[in-house]
C-alpha cells in the first residue's frame, strides 16, 4: 500500500469539504482545532477501510470504540480498552467539579510533565471531571453535518456510509457549546493525541473559551520518520509542539531521571549484562499512517538476525518484552531470560548494561541517552529512506561508531558485542557530545 497515495486521496476528498466544515464550526471558539480533529477522523476511516476493507468498517460499526487506532489494536490483537463514560457514584460530583475547573486557565493533559504530588491530585480530579462531562446533543446539527460528510465517501459504493456516520460520528462534532463564565484563554499542556483517542478530552474543544494547546512529546518516535501522518495531525492540533530532540522546537525530556541520583541502581553488581528490549505489536493501519516505523516494527529479519548474532557472540542475554496485551509473537522461541516483568524497563536497566534495540524509535533510547547507557540499534536497511533529516544524521553518526547495524551484516553485531562486553568505556566521545547537543 502506498501511504502517500492514500493521504493524497484523503486531501482530494476533504478539500471540497474544507470551507463548509470551517463554516459549520464558525461560532465555536476553537473552530480550527475542531475542523482539524474532524479531518483526522475522516482520514482515519479511509485508512481503516483501505487496511481492513469493508469487513473492518462493519466491525468498527459494531464496536464501542470511537478511535480507529484503538479499534485496530482490538481488531488485530484483542486489546481491550475502556469505553465511554465512567458510571460510578462520584460521576455527578466530578461533573459539578467541572464548573470550578472551568475557572482554571491551565489544564495538564496526559503526556504533560507532572512531578509535584499536589499537581498529580489536581490532574487526576480535573481529567476525571472532563471524562464525565455530559454533552448537549444538537440533533439538527448532526443531520446537517452528516449530509455534508457523505460527500467525503464514494457515491457509487454500496456500503452505507450514512449509517456509519449516524452511528460512529463522535458527539463532540455536533454538540452545543459548553458555556463558561470565564472568557479568558485556557492553556492546555500535554499530548494532543488525547483528543484523537475520542475518550473524553476532545470535549474541551467545545468549551466557549479559546484554547492554546502546548503539545509535548511523551514517548519515542516523534519526528524520526518522514510522512508520519498521525504525528502530523497531532502536531497540527497544537499551537506549539515541544519535542525531545528531533522536532523543530525541543526541550530536554523529563520523563526519565538520571540514575546518578540513585547509587544503588547505578551499576549491576555482578557483570555486564546484554539486554534485548523488544518492540510491541503494531496494527496494520500504521502502514499508511507511519510507513517508516511500520517497516521497522514488522521486520522479522531483524529479529532473526539479532537472535543469530547473540548466539554467535556466545553470551547469555536477557529480554524485556512488552506486557502481554501488546507482546509481539515475533520473538517466540528467541527470547533470553526474562527480567522482572512487574517492573518497567527503566527500573531494570543498569549503567553498565548493553541494551539492544531492534528499531530506532523506542522511548527507552531516551532513558539510555539520559544515563549514558551503551546501546546498539539494529534496523532494516530499507527503512533508512523514511528517516527525517535529523534522525538520519543521528543514526549515521552511531553507525560510524559501530553502534548501528543492518539485518544483512552477518557476524558484525556479534563481533561488536564481544568487543564491547569486555570494555569499561560506554559511549564514544563524539556520540556523547552529539547527544548532549541534540537531547540536552
For the biggest sheet, the summary is:
6 strands, parallel
The percentage helix is 40-55%
Count of distinct structural domains = 2
Radius of gyration: 23 Å
Keywords:
single chain, alpha/beta, 6-stranded parallel β-sheet, 17 helices, 43% helix, 9% strand
Overall description:
Helices cover 43% and strands 9% of the residues. It has 440 residues and is an alpha/beta fold. It has 2 domains: 3-216, no CATH class; 259-439, 3-Layer(aba) Sandwich (Rossmann fold), CATH 3.40.50. Strand 3 (211-216), helix 9 and strand 4 (240-242) form a beta-alpha-beta unit. The longest helix is centred in the first third of the chain and has 32 residues, at 31-62. The radius of gyration is 23 Å and the shape is globular. The mean pLDDT is 91.
Short description:
This protein has helices at 3-24, 31-62, 68-77, 91-101, 117-131, 139-149, 161-168, 193-196, 229-236, 286-289, 291-297, 300-313, 345-348, 364-370, 389-400, 412-421, 429-439; strands at residues 106-108, 186-190, 211-216, 240-242, 274-277, 318-320, 337-338, 354-357, 374-379, 404-406. The protein is of the alpha/beta class and 440 residues long. The model has no long low-confidence stretch (mean pLDDT 91).
Please write out the topology.
Blueprint: H1 3-24, H2 31-62, H3 68-77, H4 91-101, E1 106-108, H5 117-131, H6 139-149, H7 161-168, E2 186-190, H8 193-196, E3 211-216, H9 229-236, E4 240-242, E5 274-277, H10 286-289, H11 291-297, H12 300-313, E6 318-320, E7 337-338, H13 345-348, E8 354-357, H14 364-370, E9 374-379, H15 389-400, E10 404-406, H16 412-421, H17 429-439
Parallel strand pairs: 1-2, 2-3, 3-4, 5-6, 5-8, 6-7, 8-9, 9-10
